[in-house]
């Protein structure tokens, strides 16, 4: 048994609601690429520990991570979720309603970079960011998160091990190169404290100083 199988065995149980969300994604023939169960559980814990009232998610899919983030929100807290595909945002919203968070989420459709620019113009600020969309833009999303961050904000990135491709020197595809650059940036940026956890497909947790 690997370490991650042991961790998942102890902490990876999902309630019926989350299982139903995964099934709804399969039923609609959407990609089954929601966060892993243990990452979902950790997202709730991170939001709770931060005391976050404003959370921004980049990449909604069917709402699995959105529910996990919303479960950690402080009283009166809200989630803003950026998604390219209207059909995905629609399912995510449906699932968020089933989870009791329908009134606390604001979906912004379209290219995340465009939505981020708009949020910047609106003067929006956030306590927790969850980056889980196109890998080539992780650095751009990180730079936007720094601009929109309240002091002490957390910037969390999923899939930062890329199934092991980031530490395979032979692998230099576009997404791998982009995530390698992202990991190197957060590891050395003086403005933040960061750590990369080998849970799920790799989760980076960065705290803005
Ligand atoms: C890995 S999935 C997100 C999974 C979701 N966070 C979860 O765990 O429940 C990536 C999502 O990012 C969206 N996406 C990809 N590129 C995007 C872009 N440029 N702007 C906004 N959303 C994008 C995809 O449509 C997809 O729904």
From TrEMBL:
GO MF, one annotated term: O-methyltransferase activity
SUPFAM superfamilies per record: S-adenosyl-L-methionine-dependent methyltransferases (SSF53335)
Top-level lineage group: Bacteria
Entry keywords, A to Z: Methyltransferase, S-adenosyl-L-methionine, Transferase
One GO BP: methylation
Residues annotated as transmembrane: none
Listed name of the protein: Methyltransferase
């Amino acid at each position: 048994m690997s370490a991650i199988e042991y961790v998942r065995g102890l902490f990876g149980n999902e309630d019926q609601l989350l299982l139903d969300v995964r099934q709804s994604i399969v039923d609609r023939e959407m990609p089954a690429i929601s966060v892993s169960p243990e990452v979902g559980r950790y997202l709730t814990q991170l939001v709770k520990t931060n005391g976050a009232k404003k959370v921004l998610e980049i990449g909604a899919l069917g709402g699995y991570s959105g529910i996990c983030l919303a479960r950690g929100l402080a009283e009166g807290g809200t989630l803003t979720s950026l998604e390219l595909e209207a059909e995905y945002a629609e399912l995510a919203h449906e699932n968020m309603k089933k989870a009791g968070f329908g009134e606390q989420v604001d979906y912004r459709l379209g290219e995340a970079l465009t939505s981020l620019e708009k949020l910047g113009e609106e003067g929006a600020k956030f306590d927790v960011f969850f980056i889980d969309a196109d890998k080539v833009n992780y650095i751009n999303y990180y730079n936007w998160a720094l601009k929109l961050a309240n002091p002490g904000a957390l910037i969390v990135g999923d899939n930062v091990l890329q199934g092991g491709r980031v530490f395979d020197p032979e692998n230099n595809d576009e997404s791998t190169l982009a995530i390698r650059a992202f990991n190197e940036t957060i590891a050395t940026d003086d403005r933040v404290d960061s750590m990369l956890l080998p849970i799920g497909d790799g989760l980076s947790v960065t705290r803005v100083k």
